[in-house]
Amino acid sequence: MITALRDGEGRLRGFGKVTRDLSERRDAERALDERGRLLTHLVRAQEEERRRIAWDVHDDTIQSMVAVGMRLQLLAAALPAEHAEAVLRLNDTVGAAVGRLRDLTFHLHPPGLDSGGLVDALSEYLEQFADGAGLSYDLVPNLDEEPPPEIAITVFRICQEALTNVRKHARASSVRVWLATAGQGVHVKVGDDGVGFDYPGDAPARRGHFGLIEMRERAEISGGWWQLHSRPGEGATVEFWVPAVRPGRP
Questions:
Q1: Residue 162 CB: number of other CB atoms within 10 A?
Q2: 177, 186 Cβ separation under 8 angstroms
Q3: The pLDDT value given to residue 246
Q4: Which residue ranges make up each domain of the chain?
C-alpha cells in the first residue's frame, strides 16, 4: 500500500510504502485446498465401493435368494402337508434374509445420495429409519447453502451411524436431527430421548465402540470435531462440526 506523505501545509514530501507478506496465508490456503482434494478422492472412493457392493448384493445375491424362495413355495405346494410345513418355514427364513439384505443395500447406498442434496437424503433416510425402528423423528435444517458433495456425504454418514446407534441401544421413542451453517462449516446434532448412559470422553477407545470411533474419525479427517453428550435417563446427543469451504474460496 502506497500513501502520500504531506507536511503541515499540505505539500507533498514523499511516499510511504507498506508491504504485507502473504506467503504464510497463501501456503495455508494451498494446504487447505490440497486437504480438500485428498478428502474428495477418499470420500468418492469409499462411496464408489459402497455403491458397487450394494449393486452386487441387489442384482446378484438378493435375486438368487428370491428365486430360491419361489422354488421352495412350488416345492411346498407339491409335498404332503407334514413336509410342506417345514419347507415353508425354510422359505420364511429365506424371506427374512432377503429383507435384511435389502436393508443392508439401503444402508450402504441410500438412493437420495445420488438424486438430491444433503437435506433430501437425510429426510428420505429418516423416514425409512423411523418407520423400521418405530420412532418419531424431527429434521430441522438451517443451512445457508448446500455443502460440497464430499462434506455432504461425510455429514450423512456420521448421522447414519448415530441413528444406527439410536436404533440398537437407545430404547428411544423419538429422534431429532438439527443442521445449521456455522463458522464456514456445517454444525449437526443428532439427539434422542432414550435411556442414555454414563459417557466418559475416552469411552470409544477404551471400550471398543467402533461406531463412535468411526464417527469421530470421519469428522476429524474432514478437519472438524465430534462430541457425544449423554447421561443415564436423559438420552444422548451426537454433536459435530465439519468445515464446508469449497476449494479456492477464501
A1: 26
A2: no
A3: 64
A4: 24-109, 110-243
Q: Which residues of the chain have pLDDT under 70?
A: 22, 25-43, 46-47, 109-115, 199-209, 246-250
User: Which three cell numbers mark 211?
Assistant: 461406531
pLDDT at 27: 61
Query: Nine-digit cell at 73?
Result: 413355495
The answer to whether the predicted template modeling score (pTM) of the entire model surpasses 0.85 is no
Whether residue 70 contacts residue 77, with contact meaning beta carbons closer than 8 Å, is answered with no
Residue 39 CB neighbours (<10 A): 19
- In whole angstroms, give the CA distance from residue 146 to residue 152: 8
Give the per-residue pLDDT at 137.
93
pLDDT of residue 211: 80
pLDDT, residue 31, reads: 59
Q: What pLDDT sits at residue 32?
A: 57
The CATH code of the domain at 110-243 is 3.30.565.10
Phi-psi region of 185 (alpha: psi -120 to 50; beta: other; left: phi over 0): beta
